[in-house]
């Protein structure tokens, strides 16, 4: 059997498929790409690392012979490297009954040993009527603004993912890594795949590793583009126009995050977002310094009447800066990991922020100064204990 592809088409299919390839496994097939002929002019390409899966179909010319006309698996890393180095134009993949595979274009030719497609694990099947559709740019923005606070290798497995709650047309996304909490709420057009008139209600947790791959696949610019999220008990499927991406879900209860948000704050500050970010970026030139193994230093914020004084010092130097504010309540001095605070501020998208605090040991709450009923966010950053 021969499969003749256009190089550009093959690369466009293989590149995103690489995100669902296993690098270390006792199952050789999941380290590869499954090629499945469909008729005489289409080939299905799939990868599956038992946690994530990718599948798409691309046009190609298929010449069937008596030698081998079934699905086969080729090592993904080798195929990816080979097709990128072959000359432009058509690429032919030819396989015989012994699964010896030739990949060639022009005068260049490679030979690999394939694995029978029957050894490739079956992808999970989900009921297509349990889920919803959403705008790709809206989903991308919500994820991007919360992604920084997803934990990595936390013993509380739920924190290693992004928590979704869908109630009717309201989508809430939450992430927390102990040091930071990020909450985004969006009222938007949500299509119920079940066709039922009853309010859609779903909750699920998508692993952080899946989120990283998903963000490479979502079209964040085309306002007309949508994606279907088909949600099962253990998996979620993202169905795009010309490919699908599947992931296992984290099967755990999420923390009761709302109980961690301080309710009795006594210091309230209105501050210009860009000015605050620029000041902290200047401070980070000192706080991020590491000399002779010295731990990174914190940034100290001294909130006074209509002013925040930003200071920090390390073995390499010190910084002093001021930002004008509008404040209510008690003066307060509080310290933060500068990078953690910057991550939260950079994920906001309004001109002015409202900062709420109660004490040097309680988390700062960051919200928009002028809330939008259709789009809300709340970030919380845990302070560090400052040395005098």
CATH homologous superfamily assignment of the largest domain: DNA Polymerase III, subunit A, domain 2
The helix count comes to: 6
How would you sum up the major sheet?
A: 12 strands, antiparallel
How do the strands line up in the largest sheet?
A: 16-12-13-14-27-26-25-20-23-22-21-24
On the 0-100 scale, what is the average pLDDT? 93
Shape: elongated
Radius of gyration: 26 Å
Alpha-carbon distance between the two ends: 75 Å
CATH class of the largest domain: Alpha Beta
Which structural class should the secondary elements be placed in?
alpha+beta
* Total tally of structural domains: 3
What is the tally of beta strands?
Answer: 27
Helix content estimate: 10-25%
CATH topology of the largest domain: DNA Polymerase III, Chain A, domain 2
Percentage of residues in DSSP E strands: 35-45%
Second-tier CATH architecture of the largest domain:
Roll
Unreliable parts = none
Q: Can you describe this structure?
A:
The chain is α+β, with helices and mostly antiparallel strands and 388 residues long. The chain folds into three domains: 2-119, DNA Polymerase III, Chain A, domain 2 (Roll); 131-257, Roll (DNA Polymerase III, Chain A, domain 2); 262-381, DNA Polymerase III, Chain A, domain 2 (Roll). Helices cover 17% and strands 42% of the residues. It has helices at residues 7-17, 76-85, 136-146, 208-217, 273-287, 338-346, and strands spanning 2-6, 32-38, 42-48, 52-59, 61-63, 72-75, 90-95, 100-105, 108-113, 115-116, 131-135, 161-167, 170-176, 180-187, 191-192, 201-207, 226-231, 235-239, 243-248, 267-272, 299-304, 307-314, 317-329, 332-336, 352-357, 364-368, 375-381. The strands form three sheets. A twelve-stranded antiparallel β-sheet has the order 16-12-13-14-27-26-25-20-23-22-21-24. A ten-stranded antiparallel β-sheet has the order 10-6-2-3-4-19-18-17-11-15. Strand 12 and strand 13 form a beta hairpin. Helix 1 (7-17) packs antiparallel against helix 2 (76-85) and helix 5 (273-287) packs antiparallel against helix 6. It is elongated, with a radius of gyration of 26 Å. The model has no long low-confidence stretch (mean pLDDT 93).
